[in-house]
Amino acid sequence: MAEDEKSLNVTEESNPTRKHKGKHDKPKPWDDPSIDHWKIEKFDPEWNQSGLLEVSTFSTIFPQYREKYLQQYWPIVTLLLCAFFNDLSNSNFVAGSMTVLTTMKTRDPYIILKARDLIKRLSRSVFAPQAVKILNDEMQCDIIKIGSLVRNKGNIVATMGSFKGLKQVRRIVEDCVLNKMHPLHHIKILMLKRELAKNPALASENWDRFLP
């Protein structure tokens, strides 16, 4: 009986089940090189004619030294929010805090997240003319926390741009703070990539041989 069990174990060890690597790597309909996956489609109000069913609210506080500046620009910010929310009662400014909320007239469900990012940028010393650009569909934002990486350069870096650009900026900031690479080298690489992208013959080739 013991010999039969040993022979069975030897047989199982000699014939292990092999896992084929890449067996799920099949052609997918969205793997089309002609499609720009970074592109953000502009919202059409006809996609949501009935509006929103629930009210969403976001609030943030700001330091006291920003209050005078925010009071000066808040009427302009309110008018811009009205254009996106279709209602004037979508924002509130009181001493020490800013609030944005959706109303029954709001059509774009994602605009409340854009408004949340707007008031966060305003509270983090971003100039109002630059911060309001976040309301556009093609503009995104990111907060890079550097307080744990360096002690005397602040705590955060506020960035705005496309998804692809934010990824590049994060790499540049982290490499600069950690002294891995000077930002000038990153800028040279980005300038070379921009020039190479203008050449259609090199669009589908590897650019490593051209980069420093």
Walk me through the topology:
Elements: H1 2-14, E1 57-61, H2 67-85, E2 91-94, E3 97-101, H3 111-123, H4 128-131, E4 140-145, E5 156-161, H5 163-177, H6 183-197
Antiparallel strand pairs: 1-3, 2-3, 4-5
Helix pairs in contact: 2-3
CATH superfamily of the domain at 48-136: K Homology domain, type 1
Overall number of strands: 5
Which CATH C-level class of the domain at 48-136 is it?
Alpha Beta
Radius of gyration of CA atoms, rounded to a whole number? 26 Å
Helical content stands at: 25-40%
CATH fold-type name of the domain at 48-136: Ribosomal Protein S8, Chain: A, domain 1
Question: How would you describe the overall organization of this protein?
Answer:
This protein is α+β, with helices and mostly antiparallel strands and 212 residues long. The protein has a domain at 48-136: Ribosomal Protein S8, Chain: A, domain 1 (2-Layer Sandwich). Helices cover 37% and strands 12% of the residues. The protein is built from six helices and five strands; from the N terminus they run H-E-H-E-E-H-H-E-E-H-H. The protein has helices spanning 2-14, 67-85, 111-123, 128-131, 163-177, 183-197, and strands spanning 57-61, 91-94, 97-101, 140-145, 156-161. Strands 1-3-2 form a three-stranded antiparallel beta sheet, with helices on one face. Strands 4-5 form a two-stranded antiparallel sheet. A hairpin with a 2-residue loop joins strand 2 and strand 3 (97-101). The longest helix has 19 residues, at 67-85. It is globular.
